[in-house]
Amino acid sequence: MNYIISPPSQVSVAIRDRDSRFPVRRVYCVGRNYEAHAREMGKDPSRDPPFLFQKPSDAVVADGGLIAYPPQTNNFHHEIELVVAIGRGGSDISVTEANSHVLGYAVGIDLTRRDQQLAARDAGRPWEWGKAFDRSAPCSAIVLAQALGHPAQGRIWLAVNDTIRQDADISQLIWSVPEVIAFISNSMALEAGDLIFTGTPAGVGPLVPDDVVSGGIEGVGTVNIRIGPAAHRTT
Ligand code: MN
Fold this sequence. Notes:
- By secondary structure, the protein is of the alpha+beta class.
- It has a single domain (12-230), classed as Alpha-Beta Complex (Fumarylacetoacetate hydrolase, domain 2).
- It has helices at residues 35-40, 114-123, 128-131, 145-148, 177-185; strands at 12-14, 21-23, 27-30, 52-55, 60-62, 66-68, 76-78, 80-86, 102-109, 112-113, 137-139, 143-144, 155-160, 163-169, 195-197, 205-206, 212-217, 221-228.
- The strands form five sheets. Strands 4-3-15-8-9-12 form a six-stranded mixed beta sheet.
- Strand 17 and strand 18 (221-228) form a beta hairpin.
- It is globular, with a radius of gyration of 17 Å.
- The structure holds manganese (II) ion (MN).
């Protein structure tokens, strides 16, 4: 193909104990999927159908990354989340078949410009500026389901400078991983390469430059990032 500009490079995530990598197509994120987090956001938890948003694939940052404090926010939040890596696509996937579409699992942080998100929410506008900004999706290496199985319980936690901020269990997900896969695939075709951030438990809070952030999910792994000074603006 003769492109007039260089095509963007393929974003990918490491696979634990493998040389091969997972090429990222789309990044889906579930909103409000733990009761206590829904309450801290001022909403009643419910089994109403889940809602989703996307981040661009090039928002993914590898474990260990340095993330400059983003522009246009004074309330930059962490959200620790179980991430699902889709290995086989499909439409109208049933809950009972959903796990067979999962390649593996990872630990991600849905970084959020909370002030932008809430302003958009309250104005009835899209969440894009609060959620889908550059480097907003740190993600650990993927552990393969063939080694791990399909975890339905396990501690999920996040610490800032060694102080625990979020501490819950993935068994508390309002919508389980198979239910989320079924829900998305009823609306849009899932494809191999899709990542799904499944929602965060309570305890979200602000990050500032020089914070060291570590999080993990029992059995799945850990993710670590550091917050840097605000990026130099060149334009
Ligand atoms: Mn989230």
